[in-house]
Amino acid sequence: SQQGEEDPQALSIQEGENATMNCSYKTSINNLQWYRQNSGRGLVHLILIRSNEREKHSGRLRVTLDTSKKSSSLLITASRAADTASYFCATPRSSTLGRLYFGRGTQLTVWP
Amino acid sequence: DTGVSQNPRHKITKRGQNVTFRCDPISEHNRLYWYRQTLGQGPEFLTYFQNEAQLEKSRLLSDRFSAERPKGSFSTLEIQRTEQGDSAMYLCASSLTVAGGPSYNEQFFGPGTRLTVL
Predict the structure, then answer these.
(1) Which of A3, B9, B37, B73 has its CA 20 to 30 A from that of B22?
(2) How far is A100 from chain B (nearest CA, A)?
C-alpha cells in the first residue's frame, strides 16, 4: 500500500509562477523525501527533510514538514518549463529504513 | 557516468516467457532496491539487498519473481512465466548505509527497464 498521497494530482502554471505541492502520510516517519521524474528519465532525489526539521531549502525548492499533521509541502519558486515533471513524496517506515513508500505523484506542467 | 545503470532499457516479450533484468548500482553503495511502477502510479517496493543479503521482500514479489545479488555488486531480477499484468517499469535504486552513520536513506535511481508483455 502507498504511504504518502500528493495533492493536487495535476498542476498547470506559467513560467515564473510558484508551484506548491502537498503530501500527506499515515504513520510516523524518520524522514520524508521528494523526488522528481521527467518523462523518459528515472527518479531524481530532490531533497530530504528529517522528522526533527520543520523547513529546508535547496535552491528554488522549499520543503516544510508538519509531523503533527503528518503532512509536507514542496514549493518551487520562479518555475521554469524544465520543471515540468511528476513530483513524488516518499517516506521510509521508521522501523525499516529500507523500503520507501511513494505517493501517486503530482504532475506539474509549466507553460513557457 | 557513475550513476545506477539498468539493462535492457526496454523489453517486449510474449506471455509465458521468462525475462531477466540487470541493475548495476553506484559502486560504493551497499544497498540495492527494486521497485515497480505502473502508469499514473508511484513506484512500489519489491525487494532490497544489503550487500548480498536479501533483507526484505514485498507481497508483490510473487513466486514467479526472483532477485539475486550474488557478489554484493550488480543484481538481477527474473520474472518467470510472464503475465500481461507484469507490464510495468522496473526501477532499481541504490544507497549507502553506514553502521553508526546517519539513519536516513537517500536512494539513487536508475533509468528503469520498461517491460511489455504481449
Answers:
(1) A3
(2) 7
Q: Which residues of B touch A39 (CB under 8 A)?
A: none
Alpha carbon distance B48, B81 (integer Å): 22
> Which pLDDT band holds residue B72 (cuts at 50, 70, 90)?
confident
**Average pLDDT of A97-102?**
82
Per-residue pLDDT, averaged over A63-89, amounts to 96
| Nearest-angstrom CA–CA distance, B79 and B67 | 9
d(CA B22, CA B73) in angstroms, rounded, equals: 11
* Calpha distance B78→B64 (Å, rounded): 8
**How far apart are the C-alpha atoms of B109 and A87, rounded to whole Å?**
14
Q: How far apart are CA B85 and CA B16, in angstroms?
A: 12
Do residues B36 and B88 make contact, with C-beta atoms less than 8 angstroms apart?
A: yes
Q: Which residues of B touch A31 (CB under 8 A)?
A: 104-105
